[in-house]
Design brief:
Length: about 325
């Protein structure tokens, strides 16, 4: 790849080069590493205000892609350029993907002011997160002023995405009473805005009731003086209330303020730094010749009950340190 051409193409917002740049920064191949680093260093210095980074999460079927299609179309109609990235933990395990389906967001896919990228399917969740964070840098340098990061509602991926965006939006369905328990407490702790989706037809009243209950539950989770995550209702399918959800996202940004946003991003960079270190150490461990040499023996000994886990770990680490 011609590095200078790629850099220039990204800065000019040319789609083909944006796509190639993302492929480069997603690559786990050691031979792409130096070029990816260089590109990211050049791109990170982009001027202009930072893009609005929003994480969007919810269980499969909650209506994420329908919602993003409605929101994204609204935003591009208002003159924004919208990037959509995905962090899909299922792609990590199976190579297949819950979020990657090509037929999703057909309208937004055809929109010249939108750029949609499915989840990278290689490696660990940490690796996918690294790729997504770096893809975000590419999109921002290419002039996408809104970046939506979609993830499926399964545990760790949400915490990971919350750690790379300014505002975390959680989509849920009407649930009341006991069903509320089903919404993991952890989610309520990281959500900045909550929207009860599919509030349409005969489900509208139910959705409003659920939103009120959820708002009550949240007051118990969050401390006084903190941002109180607003709970609203919407219908992505009928494009009702989607503008209101967006306004809440902007309100949350206002609440952070310029200083708060800068601090939040700086702390995220620090977390990201350590995540990169852990990722790298993990890779080195995997490729260590010393570890490879003793691995089979240690495995057999542990399986045979001849070696305890702590001693086995010591042996592997010693082998690694001697590399
Ligand atoms: P995702 O898995 O979270 O991305 O969900 P999808 O956007 O693919 O939607 C799952 C199903 O719910 C589809 O059949 C959609 O047509 C439907 N759906 C999505 N949003 C709404 C909504 O606002 N109202 C209603 N009634 N159905 C919706």
């Amino acid at each position: 790849m011609d590095a200078a051409g790629l850099l220039e193409g990204v800065r000019a917002g040319r789609r083909a080069q944006v796509a190639r740049a993302i492929t480069l920064v997603e690559s786990t191949a050691p031979r792409h590493r130096a070029a990816a680093r260089e590109l990211l260093t050049e791109l990170a210095g982009a001027d202009g205000p930072p893009a609005v980074r929003v994480g969007i999460s919810g269980v499969p079927g909650v209506g994420k892609s329908t919602f993003i299609e409605a929101l994204g179309s609204r935003l591009t109609a208002a003159g924004h350029r919208v990037g959509v990235l995905a962090v899909d933990p299922s792609s990590v395990r199976t190579g297949g993907s819950v979020l990657g389906d090509k037929t999703r967001m057909s309208r937004l896919s055809a929109d010249p002011a939108a750029f949609i990228r499915p989840s990278p399917s290689a490696g660990t969740l940490g690796g996918v997160a690294r790729a997504t964070t770096q893809a975000m840098t590419v999109l921002e340098a290419a002039g996408y002023d809104v970046v939506l990061v979609e993830t499926v509602g399964v545990g760790q991926s949400e915490v990971t995405v919350a750690g790379m965006v300014d505002t975390f939006l959680f989509l849920t369905l009407a649930r009341t009473g006991d069903q509320l328990q089903g919404i993991k407490k952890g989610i309520l702790e990281i959500a900045d805005v909550i929207a009860v989706n599919k509030a349409d037809g005969d489900r509208e009243g139910e959705a409003r009731g659920a939103a009120r209950e959820l708002a009550g539950a949240l007051r118990m989770v969050r401390g006084h003086g903190e941002w109180a995550p607003p709970v609203v209702t919407c219908s992505g399918l009928h494009d009702v209330g989607v503008d209101d959800v967006w306004q809440k996202v902007l309100d949350h940004r206002d609440h952070l303020g310029e200083g708060g946003l800068t601090t939040k991003r700086a702390e995220q960079q620090l977390d990201f730094t350590w995540a990169l270190v852990r990722d790298e150490l993990d890779q080195r461990l995997r490729h260590s010749a010393g570890v490879k040499a003793v691995q089979a023996d240690v495995r057999a000994a542990v399986l045979a009950g001849e070696l305890t886990a702590p001693l086995a770990a010591d042996r592997l680490l010693e082998a690694y340190d001697q590399d």
